[in-house]
From TrEMBL:
SUPFAM superfamilies: YjbR-like. It comes from Pseudoalteromonas phenolica. It comes from the Bacteria. This is MmcQ-like protein. Gene3D superfamilies: 3.90.1150.30. InterPro entries: YjbR, YjbR-like_sf, YjbR/MT2646/Rv2570-like.
Length: 127
């Protein structure tokens, strides 16, 4: 999955908006005003200047966050985020698209589940 595919999948979620509150180059995806993902060109790592990868931050349950980090080299603790609740997914082609979509779905639902029931219902009816 590349950054364009990731953007399309993220923005396809019901009631999702995208903005850049952290500055140009960092897209923030929110559902009803609550952040569930960010997408930006990575700026860290050896060789990043020659072959930069896009990085996506996604919310995750703490236990699953650690499991995903153990399974995939391209999943690291959330960059500039709460490392317990967020993972950074490096879009380098090493993670299957279906798994990235599952992680996005999971992040979206973790945020929706914390909303009042009325807001949850309006979103869930559109899934």
């Amino acid at each position: 999955m590349d950054h364009l595919q990731a953007h399309e999948y993220l923005i396809s979620k019901p009631e999702t908006t995208v903005s850049q509150p952290f500055g140009e180059g960092v897209d923030v995806y929110k559902v009803k005003g609550k952040m569930f993902a960010t997408l930006a060109l990575g700026k860290m790592g050896k060789g990043a200047e020659e072959n930069p990868h896009w990085w996506m931050n996604l919310k995750c349950a703490p236990d699953e966050a650690h499991i995903l980090r153990d399974i995939f080299d391209a999943v690291i603790p959330g960059y500039h985020m709460n490392k317990r609740l967020w993972n950074t997914i490096i879009l380098d082609g090493s993670i299957p698209q279906g798994e990235i979509e599952r992680m996005i779905d999971n992040s979206f639902m973790l945020v929706v589940e914390k909303m009042p029931k009325k807001a949850q219902t309006s979103i869930l009816l559109k899934l």
